[in-house]
Design goal:
The chain has about 270 residues and is of the alpha/beta class. The strands form two sheets. It has a six-stranded mixed beta sheet with strand order 6-7-8-3-9-10, with helices on both faces. The chain has a four-stranded antiparallel beta sheet with strand order 2-1-4-5, with helices on one face. Helix 4 packs across helix 5. The N terminus is likely disordered. The chain binds adenosine-5'-triphosphate. Adenosine-5'-triphosphate (ATP) binds next to strand 2 and helix 2.
C-alpha cells in the first residue's frame, strides 16, 4: 500500500470489527389491555442478548405489564389481553400453542419482594430442577451448590442448607430467589424492582450480581432507581403513559437523551 493510499484508508479498516449485537427478545407493534383499558400502545423494542436492559418510567407507565408478558405471567390476570409480536429467538411467546411451563423455564422471574417457598434453602433451589430436569441426587446437590454460588449466597448458607429459607435476611432471600430462578437453566431473567424491598448494602450486592449474571443471561429489569439503572444496565428503555419514548445505550439515555420527556424524567423533574 502506498503512503498516499494508507493515509486515505478509512480508520475502521485498521480497527478489529466489533461483534454485532445479538438480539434475544424482539417486540414489535405490541399492545396490551386490561379489559378496555389500554396499558401499552404500539411498542417496539429489541432486547440484546447477554446484556442488562432497564425499563424506567413513572408509576403506571406499563413497565411491569410488558415485563409480565415476556413470560406470560399476565395469563393469570383474566382481564389481560395483548396483540403484536413478542419473540424470544424463534419462540412466539404470545402464540396459543406456546407451552407456558417450558417458556417459564426459559424465562425466569424475580419479584419485588423476595418470595422463597416456606421450605428449606436446599428445597427452594431443588424444586424447579426436580420438576423440569431428570437429575440424580448427586447432580441435584451439585446444581443446588452451583446455583447458590452463582447467586453469590453460597458462603452464607452452605452450613445451613436444610434450615428454613424464611429465616434468611431479605437480601439473602432475594439472592436465594435468584438461585432458584437460575437453577432450571433459563436464558432470560426478568426482574421486577428486585431491590426495592432491600437495604442499601443488600441492594449493592444484588446490583453487582445482576451485572455479573449478564455474562450468561439476558436480563430485563424494571427499576424506579435511576442510579441503579445507570449503575447496572447496558441499555435503558424509557416508558411514559404506556408508550416507549426512547431506548438506547444507558449512558446515552442518561447523558444525552433524544427526547425532552426522557431528559426531564432522568433528571428527576417528574415521576
Ligand atoms: N391487573 C390489573 N388490572 C387492571 N389494570 C391494571 C392491572 N395491572 C396494571 N394495571 C394498570 O395498567 C397500567 C400499567 O401498570 P403497570 O403495573 O404495568 O405500570 P408500571 O409502570 O409497572 O407501574 P409501577 O412503576 O407503579 O409498578 C396502570 O394504569 C395500572 O393501573
Amino acid at each position: 500500500m502506498s503512503e498516499a493510499t494508507r493515509s486515505a484508508a478509512p480508520e475502521t479498516a485498521t480497527k478489529p470489527a466489533e461483534a454485532p449485537e445479538e438480539i434475544c427478545i424482539r417486540i414489535a407493534d405490541f399492545n396490551a389491555w386490561y379489559g378496555s383499558f389500554q396499558a401499552i400502545h404500539n411498542l417496539s423494542l429489541e432486547v440484546p442478548r447477554n446484556k442488562v436492559t432497564a425499563f424506567i418510567g413513572p408509576s403506571g407507565c406499563g413497565k411491569s405489564t410488558l415485563l409480565r408478558w415476556i413470560n406470560r405471567m399476565n395469563d393469570i390476570v383474566p382481564s389481560a389481553n395483548s396483540r403484536g409480536t413478542l419473540m424470544i429467538d424463534d419462540l412466539d411467546v404470545l402464540a396459543q400453542s406456546t407451552d407456558v411451563v417450558n417458556l417459564r423455564r426459559r424465562v425466569g422471574m424475580v419479584f419485588q419482594k423476595p418470595n422463597p417457598f416456606p421450605k428449606s434453602i436446599y428445597e427452594n433451589v431443588a424444586f424447579g430442577p426436580r420438576l423440569h430436569l431428570h437429575t440424580s441426587r448427586r447432580e441435584l446437590d451439585e446444581l443446588v451448590e452451583w446455583s447458590l454460588q452463582k447467586a453469590a449466597v453460597w458462603d452464607e448458607v452452605k452450613d445451613r442448607l436444610h434450615a428454613p429459607a424464611l429465616g434468611l435476611s431479605g437480601g439473602q432471600q432475594q439472592r436465594l430467589c435468584i438461585a432458584r430462578a437460575i437453577a432450571v437453566g433459563p436464558e432470560v431473567l426478568l426482574m421486577d424492582e428486585p431491590c426495592s424491598a432491600l437495604d442499601p448494602a443488600s441492594t449493592l450486592a444484588i446490583e453487582d450480581l445482576i451485572y455479573e449474571l449478564r455474562e450468561q443471561y439476558t436480563i430485563v429489569m424494571v427499576t424506579h432507581n435511576m442510579q441503579q439503572a445507570s449503575r447496572c444496565s447496558d441499555q435503558t428503555a424509557f416508558f411514559f403513559e404506556g408508550k416507549l419514548i426512547e431506548s438506547g445505550p444507558t449512558q446515552d439515555v442518561f447523558t444525552k437523551p433524544k427526547e425532552k420527556r426522557t431528559d426531564d424524567y432522568v433528571r428527576g423533574r417528574f415521576g
